[in-house]
Design a protein that fits this description.
mainly alpha, DNA alkylation repair enzyme, DNA_alkylation, ARM-type_fold
Length: 225
């Protein structure tokens, strides 16, 4: 089986400095890149991740080592791993502590938006995790709030409307992060996605909270209404 270091060497071998500069610029130069587009990254890592997914337990050592690497593709690799069905099926309620640690480290929308899906898997399997999401929605760190807001993005009919409303209400006009772009975008995104399943609920939520909602949130949430 390919080792972590061999996987990184494969990334290095396929690096592209021109693409790396463009990718870094797109992410506001917060991170360095190898310059490997997503389709190529997934092609290069397919065999490695397939083998890792067969392991008995989630390899958190691998995940955190990838999080310590300088190039962003390594964090993407860790997220690709956690999102694999065979891996996510092994996630435990206690793993939310690890997700939290990742979410606030090297935080930016790209990593957090990958982790919200992972957190969502844990919440679906563990109803008691809903209280943790509610706590995160009022956290001092706005990236944790964003993760909580969007962890039900793919839930569709399984969405807990009461929880979604409570989480968003923690992030309206009286919130310390009321003017934060990434929070208001997340609110709009969460409501927009759920409007595909229950447009009446989303319409009523906007109608009842519009004065407290940022215009960006309302605009995004109303896209399919």
């Amino acid at each position: 089986m390919m080792t972590y270091s061999e996987m990184i060497k494969l990334f290095e071998k396929n690096s592209d400095s021109e693409k790396a500069a463009k990718m870094a610029k797109y992410q506001k130069n917060h991170f360095a890149f190898y310059g490997i587009p997503t389709p190529l990254r997934r092609q290069l890592s397919k065999a490695f991740l397939k083998e890792k997914s067969l392991e008995e337990a989630v390899d958190w050592k691998f995940v955190f080592e990838m999080w310590q690497e300088d190039c962003r593709e390594c964090q993407y690799l860790a997220c690709d791993y956690l999102q694999m069905p065979r891996v996510s099926a092994k996630l435990l309620l206690s793993d939310l502590d690890k997700i939290k640690e990742l979410a606030v480290s090297k935080a930016w929308w790209d990593s957090v938006d990958n982790l919200d899906e992972v957190a969502g898997v844990i919440v679906k399997k563990n109803p008691q995790a809903k209280e943790i999401m509610l706590e995160w929605s009022a956290a001092d760190n706005f990236w944790l709030r964003r993760l909580a807001i969007d962890h039900q993005l793919t839930f569709k009919k399984a969405t807990d409307e009461h929880l979604l409303a409570a989480i968003i209400e923690n992030n309206l006009s009286d919130s310390v992060f009321a003017k934060e772009f990434f929070i208001n975008k997340a609110i709009g995104w969460a409501l927009r996605e759920y409007s595909k399943t229950n447009p009446n609920w989303v319409h009523n939520f906007i109608e009842n909270h519009q004065e407290q909602m940022n215009r960006l949130s309302v605009r995004e949430a109303s896209k399919y209404l």
